Amino acid sequence: MPPVSFVAVRLSKRFLLAALLALALGGAALLARVLVPALTWHGPAVGVRGQPAAVLAAARPGEPAPQFTLVGPDGKTVSLAALRGRPVILYFWATWCRYCQETLPELQALRHARSHAGLEVLAVNILESSAKVRAYLRQHGISLPVLLDHDGRVSQLYAVRATPSYYLIDPEGVLRDVLIGAVPPEELAARLESLLSSED
Questions:
Q1: Structural domain tally of the chain?
Q2: CATH code of the domain covering residue 117
Q3: Is 126 a member of any domain?
Q4: Does some domain include residue 43?
Q5: Does 74 share its domain with 140?
Q6: Which of 159, 80, 163, 160 shows the shortest CA–CA distance to 122?
Q7: How far is CA 99 from the centre of its chain?
Q8: pLDDT score recorded for residue 59
Q9: d(C-alpha 193, C-alpha 76), whole Å
Q10: Confidence of residue 196 (pLDDT cuts 50, 70, 90)
């Protein structure tokens, strides 16, 4: 029979390993709970099919906005190219994003207020089903043009890493500004005014 001291040391090592494992698992779970509700992707940007974002044609201010065509939950197809000549706010969102619930109505009001300037807002939903998005829009009374990025392709083109994200595109189709997170409506309006005044 091994000495008592040897048994005690062996048991204490097992206890220490178990405690460290529990702490590691608990920390990972807590981190996931904090990060997942707030971000679409985090850390090094990775596409939905595992393609590193570094190899994608990420949108940059001052460069032409990446072109795309998407279908909305109403079945209508919208192309960014068809909006050339109008300022566009491209807004990436998801139904689980609590900040999106606050900012979607603000965007809707801004679109109405600046309709005389030809402003268009495209709310691009990321990776969710048509049925889920339709139900959300009905529940919250949202009438903005909504598009479905089912496979995350457009989100990858714009290197979207968080929701909500705003991309301001001028009438010439050039990306002028990028805003990430819940932006106060007065700040968004000021950025938009700056965009519109630069075109005068």
A1: 2
A2: 3.40.30.10
A3: yes
A4: no
A5: yes
A6: 80
A7: 11
A8: 77
A9: 29
A10: confident
Q: Is there a domain that residue 148 lies in?
A: yes
Q: What angle do CA 93, 95, 98 make, to 5 degrees?
A: 85
Tell me which residue has tokens 């529940």: 139
Phi-psi region of 73 (alpha: psi -120 to 50; beta: other; left: phi over 0): alpha
3-state secondary structure of 68: coil
Structure tokens at 19: 């405690």
119 and 57 within one domain:
yes
47 in a structural domain: no
For residue 96, the number of C-alpha atoms closer than 13 Å in the C-beta half-sphere is 11
- Angle, alpha carbons 9-12-15 (nearest 5°): 155
For the record, the structure tokens of 44 come out as: 């090094």
Task: Tell me if 126 sits within 8 A of 163, measured CB to CB.
Answer: yes
Written as six digits, the tokens of 147 are 């598009």
Do 99 and 18 fall within a single domain?
Answer: no
Residues 109 and 164 in one domain: yes
Q: Which domain holds residue 18?
A: 1-35
pLDDT per position as a tens digit, 111-163: 999 999 999 999 999 999 999 999 999 999 999 999 999 999 999 999 999 99
Q: Any alpha helices (H) in the chain, and if so which ranges?
A: 4-35, 98-113, 130-140, 153-157, 185-197
Token readout for 185 is 């409506």
Residue 71 host element (H or E): strand 69-71
The answer to whether 96 touches 81, Cβ cutoff 8 Å, is: no
